[in-house]
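The step that takes the researchers longest sounds almost clerical: writing a folded protein down as plain text. The outcome of that step, for a single protein, is printed below.
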Amino acid sequence: MKITDVRVRLKDESKLKGIVSITIDDCFVVHDIKVIDGKDGLFISMPNKKTADGDHIDIAHPINTETRLEIKNVVLEAYNKALSEKAE
């Protein structure tokens, strides 16, 4: 798997800091990956929906640790780059 494109929309809400779309292998897009500022720093939240009982379940997500880490690293790197470009 190769992430071939990353698009970041910066947000400045209390915990929500960005919304990201990634393209995988130039043929599959995942929208609405959220960059969240949590108590232990930035993390990503995969696209999800709220269930009838109030829980959230992921709509799309990696199924192994290596893929999750790769997506996290690519997304946070692109977020930090977009943030620094905004500051310039």
